[in-house]
Every structure is written in structure tokens, then in C-alpha cells.
């Protein structure tokens, strides 16, 4: 009953009815989506400068127009096999609460608009992402996007290490 009332209020206030845009990217065989508003730009993968004693998932830092930003390899972070860097590998430059950081992914496919009724709650299952970081599952025809709350993920405790590296 409560879900109907909250859904009704969302429609009444005009929020989310227009749908939300997500940038779709792949890690291994899974397709993920993050809020397009968090994405600053998408760049091809380039060599990074390693930082001594940084966790393995932090590839290093790059100089982005005079700003030193940390780069996280999501495949290493979520133990999705050995990363391969090829012509499809990209770095998604994110702006999370005023902090700029890069996220290495296998490839980026498109920007997708999902209506509220296309987003389902994520079941408890063994995905690479802790369910705390999942928004839900977006479905478009036969396609399914695992929607990630990139704000929560990048501001989680272990990612706090990144702040120390960038300063």
C-alpha cells in the first residue's frame, strides 16, 4: 500500500515522471548504469602515474587539464578478472560532490532514459557491487542495466583513501 502512495506523490509532484538518464557501461559480461549527471566526460584510457602503497584498485593518477585526479579500475575493485586495456577501454571522469575522479571500465555503450516503471528493486544476489550501492535494475526490452549509486560507492569508507591520494 505504501508503495502506491509514494508512487502517486512522485507523479503528482512531477518528479521522475520524465525519466532519468543513465550512462551504460560494461564490466566483464555485465552492463551497468550510472546517473549521467555525475559524468563530466569520457576519455580513452591512457597511462596513469602509479602511487606507492595505494590499494591495487587505484590505478594511479592522471593530470586532467592541470587537476590531478585519482583513477579507479572497477574491474580490479570488484574482482572481475584480469583487466585488459584495449581500444574500447575508457575512463569515465566523474564529479562526485565536487571531487573529480576517473573510473576505468571495459566500454561505454550509450545514454539510456529509464522511466520509473522500468527500474525494479535489485534482488539480493551475488553481484560485484554490494547491494548498498545498487539503485536497482533497469530494464529496456531484453536488456538489463545494473544501476549503481555512484555517489554512495565513491564516498564509501575504503574510497576515502582516494581523497588522501589526490591531495
- CATH fold call: OB fold (Dihydrolipoamide Acetyltransferase, E2P)
CATH architecture: Beta Barrel
**Strand residue percentage:** 35-45%
What gross morphology would you assign? globular
Structural class: alpha+beta
**Any idea of the CATH class?**
Mainly Beta
The CATH homologous superfamily corresponds to: CheA-289, Domain 4
Number of DSSP-assigned strands = 11
What's the arrangement of strands in the largest beta sheet?
Answer: 8-1-2-11-10-9
Low-confidence stretches: 1-16
Please sum up the structure shown.
The chain is α+β, with helices and mostly antiparallel strands. The protein contains four helices and eleven strands, in the order H-E-E-E-E-E-H-E-E-E-E-E-E-H-H.
Key descriptive features of the protein:
167 residues, alpha+beta, 17% helix, globular
Walk me through what this model shows.
The structure is a single chain. This protein has about 170 residues and is α+β, with helices and mostly antiparallel strands. It has one domain (about 15-165): CheA-289, Domain 4 (OB fold (Dihydrolipoamide Acetyltransferase, E2P), Beta Barrel), CATH 2.40.50. Helices cover about 15% and strands about 45% of the residues. It contains four helices and eleven strands; from the N terminus they run αβββββαββββββαα. The strands form two sheets. It has a six-stranded mixed sheet, with no helix packed on it. Strands 3-6-7-5-4 form a five-stranded mixed sheet. The chain is globular, with a radius of gyration of 17 Å. The model is unreliable at about 1-15 (pLDDT under 50).
